[in-house]
Amino acid sequence: MEDIDAIAVLQDPVRRRLYEYVVAQGREVGRNEAAEAAGVARTLAAHHLDKLTGAGLLESGSRRLSGRSGPGAGRPAKVYTRARGERSVSLPARDYRTAAELLAEAAEEAGLDAGLCAAARRRGEALRGPAGPCGGLEEAVEALAARGYEPYLEDGAVRMGNCPFHAVAESFPPLVCGMNLALLEGLLGEGGPVRARMDARPGECCVVVEASKNNAD
Amino acid sequence: MTASPHARHLAQLNVARLRFPIDDPRVAHFVEMLDPVNAAADDAPGFVWRLVEDGEADATGLRPLGEDVIVNLSVWETQEALWDFAYRSGHLEVMRRRRDWFHRHVEAHLVLWWVPAGHVPTVGEALERLADLRAHGPSPRAFTFASSYTAAEAAGHAPDGDSATV
């Protein structure tokens, strides 16, 4: 399916709610749960979830939701998660991804990490505008969500399920992840009550946002 | 044989040329991170083996490519396991600061190749793979993350110097 067709599948408001709910959970979601969250009947939810799967926006599998296994555990239920692939549409056609990859490759070869991070920090500061440093973790969640991250709270810190620079970050991790950290440092501001720190984990953004230590290092 | 379900494991060598002697205060932060990052590697999913100098905790004392070049040689069950450790663990923070401590490489500084499970690569073998990559570019014998080959592709390739049966 063409990207533009896949994205068009999201135009239906019920489908869109179901998609956004599944994506936000970051785990497998069953039909009943999705139907309840979207406020629609189970059969309608099933229909739309399968449309989303057909468009390649979700992936489906089956799992016994009861947690039991073996005879008597019940029929496996269908579950959904976000598909890993990316969809994008640009009208008129543009190809910023190739440009980003070529620029990153050249920056990597020339060892331009420090210059890239300085530019990223300035951009983050410009995005923040005249406001002071980010006032707390809840404010950080809003600022991050507005930039395309998918922030969630864990153990009193903000982690991010999405990396807006995923494709380039996978090809040039230290360069692009360093850029991402500098951008977020600029966006959140330094010397305030929260700070960004690199704490990479498989499958997630490389940065965590946490309360600053009182005696900053 | 090991209990690993993989018939072939991925070996990796990377080399780094220090900007300052290893006991210089300007590389102290790198040295401080060696023990925790190595410990994280040892516990990482898919980790098989890493080179250490006899009686030492790491291989930074081995300098087969010259006094200012440190080497890092390890074996992993899969390419994904190595990638996740290198770029999605505390090791990424070390990588991010690499320009503070190491000279930029003009030639390839990382090489990957497949070895039969249970095979422990020698430093000499690793340096041959790096030389192969530098001389001929990526091939099933010696490749990089950006241009990688599967174990099956490497196995189907011509004799490559480690012909141990699989």
Provide a short characterization of the protein structure.
With 217 residues, chain A is an alpha+beta fold.
List keywords for this structure.
heterodimer, A: 217 residues, alpha+beta, Arc Repressor Mutant, subunit A, 2 domains, three-stranded antiparallel beta sheet, two-stranded antiparallel sheet, 9 helices, 47% helix, 15% strand, B: 166 residues, Alpha-Beta Plaits, four-stranded antiparallel beta sheet, 4 strands, 17% strand, globular
**H/E element order of chain B:** EHEEHHHEHH
What is the count of helical runs of chain A? 9
Q: What CATH architecture of chain B do you see?
A: 2-Layer Sandwich
Strand count of chain B: 4
Average pLDDT metric of chain A:
92
Strand content of chain A: 5-15%
Which CATH first-tier class of chain B would you pick?
Alpha Beta
Termini separation of chain B (Å)? 11 Å
Mean pLDDT across every amino acid position of chain B: 90
Domains of chain A, number: 2
Shape of chain B: globular
Strand arrangement, major sheet of chain B: 2-3-1-4
The largest sheet of chain B is: 4 strands, antiparallel
The radius of gyration computed from the alpha-carbon positions of chain B, rounded to a whole number of angstroms, is: 16 Å
Helix content of chain A: 40-55%
Structural class of the secondary elements of chain B? alpha+beta
Structure class of chain A: alpha+beta
Q: Helix content range of the residues of chain B, please? A: 25-40%
Ends distance of chain A? 51 Å
Protein name (chain B): DUF3291 domain-containing protein
Organism (chain B): Streptomyces vietnamensis
InterPro entries (chain B): Dimeric_a/b-barrel, DUF3291
Pfam family, one (chain B): DUF3291
Provide structural commentary.
Chain B: Residues 10-147 form the DUF3291 domain. Chain B: It comes from Streptomyces vietnamensis. Chain B: This is DUF3291 domain-containing protein. Chain B: InterPro entries: Dimeric_a/b-barrel (IPR011008), DUF3291 (IPR021708). Chain B: Pfam families: DUF3291. The complex is a heterodimer of chains A (217) and B (166). By secondary structure, chain A is an alpha+beta fold. Chain A has nine helices and seven strands, in the order H-H-E-H-H-E-E-H-H-H-E-E-H-H-E-E. Chain A folds into two domains: 1-82, Arc Repressor Mutant, subunit A, CATH 1.10.10.10; 96-211, no CATH class. In chain A, strand 6 and strand 7 (207-211) form a beta hairpin. In chain A, 28% of the residues are buried. The mean pLDDT of chain A is 92. By secondary structure, chain B is an alpha+beta fold. Chain B has a single domain (8-165), classed as Alpha-Beta Plaits, CATH 3.30.70. Chain B is 33% helix and 17% strand. Chain B contains six helices and four strands. A four-stranded antiparallel beta sheet of chain B has the order 2-3-1-4, with helices on both faces. The longest helix of chain B is centred in the first third of the chain and has 16 residues, at 28-43. Chain B is globular and about 50 Å long.
